[in-house]
Amino acid sequence: MRPFPIAAVAGSAFLLAACVNGAVSLPTIATDADTIATGLAAAAKDMRDANLLSAAQLVQVDDALSAVQAASAAVAQATSAAAAQPEVEQLASAVNAMVAALSEVATLPAPVPEILAAANVMLPVLESAVGLPAPVGAAQAMTPAEAKLVLAEQAAEFRAGH
Fold first, then answer.
1. Is residue 108 part of a domain?
2. Is residue 119 part of a domain?
């Protein structure tokens, strides 16, 4: 296990990868939101399995994960990119709450740091996709395509019960 600087993954702007005629489809936005939520569920499971969270931290992580999952489900119900804006904002807020809760843990087990980094890379992509201004920040160690792959792999493992 190695320490992970949570601040190193805070906000960044990226080009949108999944475009169709210059616009992102609602199903792509919903899938990306679900992938973030399920990837974070995998991170929460890893943290529980590693038994690194205090009771208070566990409550914070579970509350943040519930908010991430609820926002992801709401994104899937949106009828337009504009209608998905409040849900994507809620998703970003919930992801940030989860990152904040985990930032109190000195050493995060692999692959939790990578999952958190990937979620933070994907947030500006989703924000841009629904027409929200994405925060501009420092360059990240992974591209949105790499982040999407990391989250998809973790989500698949989580769904398979690994």
1. yes
2. yes
On the question of pLDDT at 9 being above 60, the answer is no
Range of the domain at 56: 25-154
Domain count, the chain: 1
- Does residue 30 form part of some domain? yes
7, part of any domain: no
Q: Locate tokens 């320490």: which residue?
A: 3
Name beta bridge partners: 3: 107
Mean pLDDT of 32-44: 96
CB atoms within 10 A of CB 110: 11
- Single-letter residue type at 130: V
* Largest Cα–Cα separation, the chain: 48
Determine if the pTM surpasses 0.90: no
**AA identity, residue 90:** Q
SS (HEC) of the chain: CEECCHHHHCCCCCCCCCCECCECCHHHHHHHHHHHHHHHHHHHHHHHHHCCCCHHHHHHHHHHHHHHHHHHHHHHHCCCHHHHHHHHHHHHHHHHHHHHHHCCCCEECCCHHHHHHHHHHHHHHHHHHCCCCCCCCCCCCCCHHHHHHHHHHHHHHHHCCC
**Which amino acid type is present at position 83?**
A
